[in-house]
Amino acid sequence: MKLQRKSGMRALTVGAVAITGALVLTACGSDNNDSSDKTSSSPSGSASTSSNASSISCAKGQILSSGSTAQQNAIEAWVKNYQQACSGATINYKPSSSGQGIIDFNQGTDAFAGSDSPLAPDETASSKKVCSGGEGISIPMVGGPIAIGYNLPGVSNLVLDAKTLAKIFNSKITTWNDPAIKALNPGVNLPSTKIQSFHRQDDSGTTDNLTKYLGGADKADWPYPHAKAWAGKGGQAVAQSSGVASQVKQTEGAIGYFELSYATADQIPTVKINTGASAPVEASSANASQGIAQAKIVGTGSDLALDLSAAYTTKADNAYPIVLVTYEIACDKGNKSDTLPLTKSFLNYIASTDGQGQLASSGYAPLPDAIATKVRSTISALS
């Protein structure tokens, strides 16, 4: 089942808006938590008695959240499902950017925030002002490939590698029939069309993860430190993943980066990556999982920040190297008492086996079991 994103979602730029989503998922179970303001309910709000009814452990209330557009499609589906099962709950998620989500969280606006990168040390320090007796932690939740989308009529099976991507996004390769691109695509009639590259205008965890890959795989051609702000030369800046996808779809000769779900929804062809494996690797949920499985937890205490560097240079067959994991940012201790029950209930649901099981149909990759187990334990301990 494919997630059909409404075009109106792309225009969300102000205010926290209650997500309506477009995908109605089967109601799923979640791990229990110890919040007192919750009931196990059916979509009508009565106790569940059917084996097909919801087993979500509901909580009541309203919470605000904002941040990553990379996880927007997954959050839409999860919120739709949760709110159908829990009539007394309203979850408002504003898809803005990872940077803005962390700002909102550290200003005390959000119950939790979405980010495509774990908290930086200064962001963790700032979080202590709103996490009474605790601090913000990064909880992995949504995995997936960063797709490289392109618009080149007549070319349907484009192959690039880290070096050509770095040079394209740094304006060192400027036409599609450049010898370096032709060498990776023998027999393909590549036009002399000018390359028009698009990147994120806003601080973005997607940008951070893409530039981690470029620098990790080809430091010579991408000499910049990875960052949420774009550092490459040239190109055109566009707000949010949906904006980059829209520009690529409508601009001949374009190339840009965004989560696979955007490419799927907008029917944008994506680049296969030559990693040195036996065949170029396609951006897919299954192939991204092969990369994410190599991640290591490097966070301390309750923080579950991951190191994905092993994925960037992998030559394993079917392992897509440009991956990201989005995090939910919450206080380990000191969460607001009026929003904590619903925050834990919702996070418990999306981290559950059933919640994670919905991701592949939307172009994402579920967390590896070992990481998911630690995520559920961390959520249960939030206070």
From TrEMBL:
PROSITE patterns: PROKAR_LIPOPROTEIN. GO terms for cellular component: ATP-binding cassette (ABC) transporter complex. Keywords: Phosphate transport, Signal, Transport. Phosphate binds at S68, T69, A70, S98, D116, S204, G205, T206. It holds the Pfam family PBP_like_2. GO terms for biological process: phosphate ion transmembrane transport. This is Phosphate-binding protein.
